[in-house]
């Protein structure tokens, strides 16, 4: 090898040595400059039922990656179900035991029930789109047999010709203030939600019917000024985050430290507490609270109308009401 070639080789070695030294210094310095961020536990992320809300058998390959690849509000096998239920998501956690009880009494449906639990307004959009929905890179079509939402919404959709009567009411629910365990924001009631330092995670009025009841309760607690502060001023300044799926996003964001409080149905807070998640709630007094009446009806043109009617008969049975009561729901009474 020539003298020049040897010199070039030595220079290359010296450069490589300097680079290795620099890399070693960076490896030591980076942990000091960039401390490791706390990684939230996997069970913070939906789905939270460990597969219990999937009625399909067999299930084939299991591929669920929390926070990355998960369809938390779509349940069962969409290919040729015998009963398809579009359920306003406020009691997604009760659906697994409800379906199990229904199938015990009606074994022909076992493993063949499909249900969705996204907000009721979005479910109506899906119904009007012929049952087609897209989530991420996946598009599929399931035509609903029965639809469930607030009683007033059900009656309106019957009048509009989207649903067939009669409307079948079955349970009621009330609001609560969901907070992280320990209540770091020291929230004591609805009036506190208007304070500038309290970060909120609130249902979006554009998608979620619960927002109407929340606004009514805010007005009861602090007048129009409180409702304006929560749903306008704080949205504008970024201290109110508006959700698309309050029954999933509100507790998730609170557990991630992105908010101090959010108003939800009390059943949702009770489920989170029963699941052992770091969530608790602050009760809203009856004088400021709002009550929802849940109801359902057969979807016009349903492919399985007899199955839909069987579910509607089941949903207000003693068996179903006992399941609902685990989460604080109360049976609907005509006087209400």
TrEMBL record:
It comes from the Bacteria. One of its GO terms (molecular function) is molybdate ion binding. The keyword Signal applies. Residues 1-38 form the signal peptide. InterPro entries: ModA/WtpA. GO terms for biological process: molybdate ion transport. This is Sulfate-binding protein. It comes from Acidisphaera rubrifaciens HS-AP3.
């Amino acid at each position: 090898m020539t003298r020049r070639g040897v010199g070039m080789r030595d220079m290359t070695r010296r450069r490589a040595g300097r680079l290795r030294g620099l890399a070693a210094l960076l490896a030591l310095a980076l942990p000091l400059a960039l401390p490791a961020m706390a990684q939230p536990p996997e069970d913070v992320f939906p789905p939270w039922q460990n597969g219990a809300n999937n009625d399909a058998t067999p299930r084939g390959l299991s591929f669920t990656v929390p926070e990355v690849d998960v369809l938390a509000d779509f349940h069962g096998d969409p290919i040729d179900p015998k009963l398809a239920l579009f359920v306003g998501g406020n009691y997604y956690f009760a659906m697994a035991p409800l379906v199990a009880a229904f199938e015990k009494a009606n074994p022909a449906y076992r493993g063949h029930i499909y249900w969705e639990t996204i907000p009721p307004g979005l479910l109506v959009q899906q119904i009007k789109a012929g049952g087609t929905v897209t989530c991420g890179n996946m598009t599929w079509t399931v035509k609903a047999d029965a639809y469930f939402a607030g009683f007033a919404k059900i009656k309106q959709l019957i009048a509009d010709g989207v649903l067939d009567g009669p409307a079948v009411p079955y349970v009621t629910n009330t609001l609560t203030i969901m907070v992280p365990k320990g209540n770091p924001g020291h929230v004591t009631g609805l009036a506190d939600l208007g304070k500038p330092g309290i970060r909120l995670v609130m249902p979006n009025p554009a998608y979620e019917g619960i927002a109407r009841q929340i606004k009514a309760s805010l007005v009861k607690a602090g007048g129009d000024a409180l409702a304006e502060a929560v749903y306008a001023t704080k949205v504008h300044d970024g201290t109110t985050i508006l959700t698309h799926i309050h029954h999933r996003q509100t507790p998730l964001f609170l557990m991630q430290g992105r908010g101090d409080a959010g108003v939800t149905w009390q059943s949702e807070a009770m489920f989170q507490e029963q699941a052992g998640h770091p969530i608790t709630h602050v009760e809203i007094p009856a004088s400021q609270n709002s009550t929802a009446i849940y109801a359902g009806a057969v979807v016009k043109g349903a492919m399985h109308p007899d199955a839909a009617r069987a579910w509607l008969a089941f949903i207000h049975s003693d068996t179903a009401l006992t399941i609902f009561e685990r989460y604080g729901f109360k049976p609907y009474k005509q006087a209400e």
